Amino acid sequence: MTHVLSDLVKRLSSAGFDEVIISMEYVDRTMVKIANSQPSVAQSWSEVLIDLYLTKDKKILVTSMTTSDLDEILRETPRLLEQINSLEPSFIYAKIPEPDREVSPLTNLVKNSTMKFMEDPGIYAEILVNKAHEEGGERVAGALDGYFKRRCIATSNGFEKCEDSTGFTVYARVFVRDSSGHWGYGGSGFDPRDIEEVATKAAYYAKEASRAKSINIDPGRYNVILTPLVLGNFIDYISMALSGLGKILGTSFFAKNNPGDQIANEMFTLKDLPHRDDMMSSTAFDDEGLATRDNILIERGVLKSFIHNTKTATILETRSTANAGWIMPRPWNLRVEPGDFDEEELVREMRRGLLINNNWYTRYQNVVEGQFSTVTRDAVLVIENGEVAGSVKRVRIADSFPSLLRNIRGLGKRLYKTRWWEIRRSVELPYIMIENVNITKPE
């Protein structure tokens, strides 16, 4: 495949583009969806995704295609040239870097467990449903999804590499009467016990919410414990605020900060780890052909680095962190370092507050200040004197990410590789306790 892409790069360069990068992904995917404790959809499919990065006279054009016919790209060349000629030179333009030609693709990213799931997904869907029922769940909804991916990058300055990987995700929503609990997992591979744990954790929260008396709480500020599901959604937003492009454009709530600034409680450390063979977004090279490496983004509350590609690094007079993204730098695998608390200890430490199982519909009210709101989904447990005292049907968190980071008061010892549709990144996270969080009621 690299030879085919290399030839295509040469032909596009000859057509009049100054720089060319082609990213091609071939993906085989299998998915099972579960509704009312029964598989409702089971499907397998393949697709080819092609992304093009083209420059001419410091103008930048990025476009995508879903085609296995590479000649179609050549047929589109006159239109692409017309489009790029109509653009203005980009203020973020920087020459694509000299690639790390000696970088070796990671070779341990294809997991047998994921390949076996793709051959016979029904077995694993049955494990999820049976375990949820065994743990007291009355109904189960969710999905299991596995893929094999071959990713290839070819550039006009000579980088040509391919890398194979797999990924597997499972999430479950378990119902007990009118209460629900949720959990998810995502990694390059899995053990059947990971599927069972998803069912067990989701059933636990459904049962706790079901057996606890329903309580109405007043809007105000509360101490909260967030599960890795909620923290995973928040880390999505926090990591993108650490993008160098957001700092340049002033659209990040960290735009006024610089490396060395204290931006979180000292117990909080966030790392980007692209070489983890058990996580979903690992890679040896980024979209510019640079060798990836581990990066500490926040260490003991101190901002250590923004996430950079060559463009943002050039403007901010630093070096790329190998997180291209041709326009927007992106993280690979995000890990929040663990703390000192067992999960039960976090609850026992709370005099009065909430434990929030899950959330969705996170939206900014002011992106520059990091002000946001999000609605809880599934179990919300009221904690009093270290014990579950009741449950709340639904509340809204309306606060700011900088405030949450400053008010962290505890982190769990155990890390979870967590995934569902509100978590777009590959993450490994603990439970987290945060003080003084603003809680309102959904409209």
Question: What does this entry look like structurally?
Answer:
The chain is an alpha+beta fold and 443 residues long. It folds into 2 domains: 205 residues, PmbA/TldD superfamily (PmbA/TldD fold); 232 residues, no CATH class. 24% of the residues lie in helices and 36% in strands. It is built from 11 helices and 21 strands. Helix 4 packs across helix 5 and helix 5 packs parallel to helix 6. The longest helix has 20 residues. The protein is globular, with a radius of gyration of 23 Å. It starts with a helix and ends with a strand.
Topology:
Elements: H1 2-15, E1 19-35, E2 38-56, E3 59-65, H2 71-75, H3 77-85, H4 112-119, H5 121-134, E4 139-155, E5 160-176, E6 179-187, H6 192-211, E7 220-226, H7 228-241, H8 244-249, E8 270-272, E9 295-299, E10 302-303, H9 310-315, E11 333-336, H10 343-348, E12 352-356, E13 359-366, E14 371-376, E15 380-384, E16 387-391, E17 396-400, H11 401-406, E18 408-411, E19 416-418, E20 426-429, E21 432-440
Parallel strand pairs: 7-12, 11-20
Antiparallel strand pairs: 1-2, 1-4, 2-3, 4-5, 5-6, 7-21, 8-9, 8-11, 9-10, 12-15, 13-14, 14-17, 15-16, 17-21, 18-21, 19-20
Helix pairs in contact: 4-5, 5-6
